Amino acid sequence: MPSSSRGLSPPPLKRRRLSPSPSSLPKHQPPPPPLPTLPTPNSPLATPHTSFRIYTWNINGIAPFLPSQTQKITSFLTPTPTTTTKRSPSNPQPHNHARPKPPQPSLRTRLRDWSWPPILLLQEIKLAPTDKTSQSSLLRAINTPLDTEPSSSNQNPNPNPDRTADNRNLYNAHFSLPRDPHNATAFHGKIYGVCTLVRRDIPHVQVKSVDWDLEGRVLVTELPKLGIVVVNIYAVNGTTNGYRDPETGKVVGDRHARKRIFHSLLAEEVRGYEEQGWGVVVAGDMNISRGGVDSFPQLRMGEEHVRNRADFEEKFIRGLGMIDTFRMVRGEERKFTYRPTNKPWGAGGDRVDMVLVTRGLEESVKEADILDSEEDRGPSDHVPLFV
């Protein structure tokens, strides 16, 4: 670990081994020992670069990436091209002032540009749990070959699942969508939600939600061949808005308090897996900046925000000894993951999206970065990052 990062991501603390928790451990399937921490060149998990790269991106709504929806919207909103009658001797033809239609954002293009990563974690997809049409549309969008892709049998969106070669550049989509009747009803249920895309040639994958999350914020992917668990997170944003009991609808606190409870439940989930020998990767939008170097022009210093930040540090960095991979690799380099769209690019930003790993996995981390550019942000207000 670079020495410049030690103050930000302290090394794991020695702590006594906890007894298994009856409430959490039985639902986890232990990985079969012994297992490598990284794929070897002969492993079915190996990519062309013999690495296992995980991307994560708060996409701020999946709708722009779904052709069946965006085509209807843009065709309704795009004005009919108009022309002027003004002519000049050098240009006797009418001028066409119609603005060219911007290219539609494409997740498959991103996957191709990122060399078909084994896993892509998406947050804040904003899908209602009853919207099966959009879920199917997403599956088609990520698996339909691009015009630039060679036409071959391995581009079939519905290949034989038993043929690894056919699945090399194709993905399954797994969802955790809000089902809380009192805290996730805005916009007709199109709020929150996470989605994990897993390349189809990755064997023995188990993807599951957790029973304590009803807002579509957590999705767990178990990878027994690697002995790791990847947890897709869209953490609660701390605000003064009320949080209601999911059963009674009674206000039982605000979203700041719920955020700290979310931290506790997530930390227990990580601890449960770690106790069984899994390495754990927690990645996504944590909705918190760790320090001054992570925000511009300044860190939020309201009383509740300071408390939430301290709670995050206590439970994950010190309590579990988790490693902030960007800080481990990049030291105090300033890059941001949240880039507001209501300001000019560069006028502000926060590093609220992270990839954390448990003790022991830090030696396997070879690279980590944030794709901090306006082009990479696309239609979202966050940029992607990877480890």
From TrEMBL:
Residues 56-382 form the Endonuclease/exonuclease/phosphatase domain. Residues 28-42 have a biased composition (Pro residues). Its cofactor is Mg(2+). Gene3D superfamilies: Endonuclease/exonuclease/phosphatase (3.60.10.10). The keyword Transmembrane does not apply. PANTHER family: AP ENDONUCLEASE, ENDONUCLEASE_EXONUCLEASE_PHOSPHATASE DOMAIN-CONTAINING PROTEIN. This is Endonuclease/exonuclease/phosphatase domain-containing protein. It comes from Stereocaulon virgatum.
